[in-house]
Every structure is written in structure tokens, then in C-alpha cells.
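Risk register update: the risk of archive-format incompatibility is retired. Evidence:
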Amino acid sequence: MASSTKLFSTMTVLFLSTVALRTVAGEETTLTAFRFDNDSGVSETVTTAPALDPSNAFFQSLGTNDRACITCHQPADGWTVTPSSIRRRFQKTNGFDPIFRLNDGAVCPTADVSTLNARRRAYDLLL
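Archived output:
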């Protein structure tokens, strides 16, 4: 925990230093904060962009499995993947959320997913 706090503090100082340098250099810097509720309370993403661009490849489906990067890497989870979030998505969708796919989310690409219990077993590694 201490090392992650130290890393966060270092990253915050670097970010704020960059903003300060850009301001000193005469560039106008406007920060936009996006807040997302999560298990710990709130996660916040700060950017110089005025909005999150949904046309960015991160938000677009990249194949035939209905997935984009954001399918797994959720903003509320710090743009990463957390077990609690995945479990909630399984419960909410009965295992039909796009994160649950046989080709890379299951214990085996030929696993039985015909029932809720079968899907729970098939996606045990994610859950």
C-alpha cells in the first residue's frame, strides 16, 4: 500500500509540474476532471481534453466479439480491471456481458456456457 501511495504521489507531482511548466511557458492549460463511482468511493481522471472522445479507438469495437478496450478497462476501476467489478457485471448480465467470451475469458475455449451455472464455471478465472 505504501509503495502505491508513493507512486500515486510521484505521479501527481509530475502531472502538476507539467501543468505548471505549460502555464509558465505561456500555454493556456485547462484541466477537466471526470468522476466515476466505484467500490472505494470515487475515481477521478484528470485531462487537458475538454471531454472523453468516444470516437477514440479505446472506445470502439475492435473485432467481431463486441469488445473495445473499455469493455475490460473501466473508468471507475482506474481504467483497469478489478475482480469486484467483473463479478458485478456477471451478476447483472448472467454472464452475457462482452467481457465474458470463450476465446480469452473462459477456462477453455470449448467450455459449456449453456446455463448460468455452466457460465459461472466457464468464467471462473475472471470471477
